[in-house]
Amino acid sequence: MDKIKVGIEVTDNWTRGDFRQFVMSISKNTAYELYIISNDDISAYIVAAGVVLGLPTDRVIITNFTDDKIDAITLNGIQIYLENLKYVADRIDYETDCYGIFVNEIPDRFQAQPTYIVDFDRAVIQIIKDKCEGIEAQEE
């Protein structure tokens, strides 16, 4: 099965221990292909995060504006994007085929982890389900 492409915004998120730990686990999991796509002007910080994650330079993308970020998400086929700004996560969710997930500290009501991790897991399940349904439809 193809790898699930995950994009992240490191600005404001990278300083949080839970986010860093979560992203490090994604970067080590062979089921995922991780990208940094950021529209911030602190490029050295963004590149340094890419180095820490062991990402090839072509998967660390720095854009100028939110519209450029959304274009980069689409062009690179990102399926899940973890974003620090709610309105940008919503735009990604509505304007692309990508799941835009807002990263915040709010814990899920029923699980002992932040809601963005629960949302990420749900998106992964849906992507896998959609791929499996597509395979079944082709075999009929």
Beta strand count: 5
**Largest beta sheet: what is the strand line-up?**
3-2-1-4-5
What does the average pLDDT come to?
91
Head-to-tail CA distance between termini = 19 Å
Tally the helices: what do you get? 5
Described by the principal axes of the CA atoms, the overall outline is: globular
Low-confidence stretches: none
Strand % is: 15-25%
Estimated structural class:
alpha/beta
Largest sheet: 5 strands, parallel
Order of helices and strands: EHEHEHEHEH
Oligomer: single chain
Approximate helicity band: 40-55%
- Cα-based radius of gyration, to the nearest Å: 15 Å
Topology diagram in text:
Elements: E1 4-8, H1 17-28, E2 32-38, H2 43-53, E3 60-62, H3 66-75, E4 80-83, H4 86-95, E5 99-102, H5 115-139
Parallel strand pairs: 1-2, 1-4, 2-3, 4-5
Task: Give a structural overview.
The chain has a five-stranded parallel beta sheet with strand order 3-2-1-4-5, with helices on both faces. The protein is globular and about 40 Å long. The chain has five helices and five strands, in the order βαβαβαβαβα. The chain has 140 residues and is of the alpha/beta class. The longest helix has 25 residues, at 115-139.
